[in-house]
């Protein structure tokens, strides 16, 4: 079971080394899932003395005001024999055999992070102590709760400390070790109050009562230690700390522990509780409890690691590999990114992704609707007929019927189809350009602003060229219908011969109002149905041929050669120009680096857990 605490120790050290301190970030945190014991207490609660008693060494900084200004992750490792020593995570190659030097290094490392401003930091210090006189245990010593800031500290530090402590102890995997002095009223303890807020049932809280020997005469802490006045799930543990006089006289921990055992075993009030009192009992209890909690959490930690590994690898895959430094590698990266964009663009058009269906809507709804709105009857108004008939044969009067006038009437009707046809070309162009932007957002192009801009420019330029070709081809379809009318249509027209008319009618009366009105009446009764039938026949053909032209010139070409010109230009670029195209967003680079470190952490943790012998 001792392997379990060592396992968590290794993972916690790896977390700190790779920047996982359990703080709220956009990265997944492994720290929060690891069971730990957080030590919480006020500045005068005797918290430091309890920790030193558990370790059996003087190693913590002392002084007035807020001494602990960074979380101290204290990892105790029991060794069979050998000399006691300490190691800091930030000084991995250095062993400290002098614990006075350990105290100094804690102070110095705190100042390196916070400066000498007496401010606090949530970045922890990792200290490992190897000794035959300790149990395997990990404790997190947090800054002591206070009500008043000292000189050199902002007024907000009181709240900052509370926020830091609460952030640690509110996590469900945190065991709360509450330190409270027996010579103060328990109900006023800030540490007790905060632990109640985050753990109202006391399931995660272990209480330690210090300074029992300093209580007023006639009073004792028996009711608390027996769980009568303030019940927790786990019994309270009483501690007798070294006095200030003992500290000044440098009384060693072995002597202090002996005095503590004697106090509880000989005290009339506490001798019936002596077997579960004292710092040695506390250390063993915490070690055993931590082992049990870790064992119960291991399956959940394994599941979390496996899921997070998959998520990290997926996001890293999406972000892509770091950019190569050589020109060939950069060109390959650009080509791969552009090919991926081209493939996604085709998938939008083909229906694998959304967007291509909008083009279908243009052909099935927008174009037919626009054609139906064309008002051909305006082309057959009397005013228009008069104009077309009189102008039909120029200076030559027509002999039988104004055929050129009929042609002009039909042509003027068909020409109006050009507007809906061109509108279809433009509508499809807009959709194709929208899909360019959409496909860019779904590829790695969004990570490279310059490359994204160049690809979008090249794609839009190609689409603009395709649109112009499509406009020419589509309008040509209408022009072909205008320039050559189907002969069968004319063979069905009645000849405009004046049967039964006045043969002596002057040629100068040929274009009078009566004559034109008579032609108009014949158009309305005989010719108009044939004309409308012919126009509808042309429309039914164009409503099918216009989409074919647009798809052939725009959609098909976009799928085949959207970036052909860009690729040709790319091959002629210099290495410096390729580098400018791959000016990746710094935020993306930082994200990739952070994810890679976090992936390394989770893989290391997975290996450590799998390596534990159950």
Q: What descriptive keywords fit this protein?
A:
2 domains; 9-stranded mixed sheet; Four Helix Bundle (Hemerythrin (Met), subunit A); GTPase activity; alpha/beta; Rossmann fold
Could you explain how this protein is built, in words?
This protein starts with a helix and ends with a helix. The chain folds into 2 domains: 2-18 and 29-317, P-loop containing nucleotide triphosphate hydrolases (Rossmann fold), CATH 3.40.50; 327-494 and 510-583, Up-down Bundle (Four Helix Bundle (Hemerythrin (Met), subunit A)). 35% of the residues are buried. It is elongated. The chain has helices at 2-17, 47-55, 99-114, 157-169, 190-198, 222-225, 244-248, 253-266, 279-319, 327-350, 357-372, 382-392, 403-415, 418-441, 449-483, 487-491, 513-561, 564-570, 575-581, 586-610; strands at 36-41, 72-78, 85-88, 91-96, 125-131, 137-141, 174-181, 205-210, 237-238. A 9-stranded mixed beta sheet has the order 4-3-5-2-6-1-7-8-9, sandwiched between helices. The chain is 56% helix and 8% strand. By secondary structure, it is an alpha/beta fold. The chain is built from 20 helices and 9 strands. Helix 2 packs across helix 9 (279-319), helix 9 (279-319) crosses helix 20 (586-610) and helix 14 (418-441) runs parallel beside helix 17 (513-561).
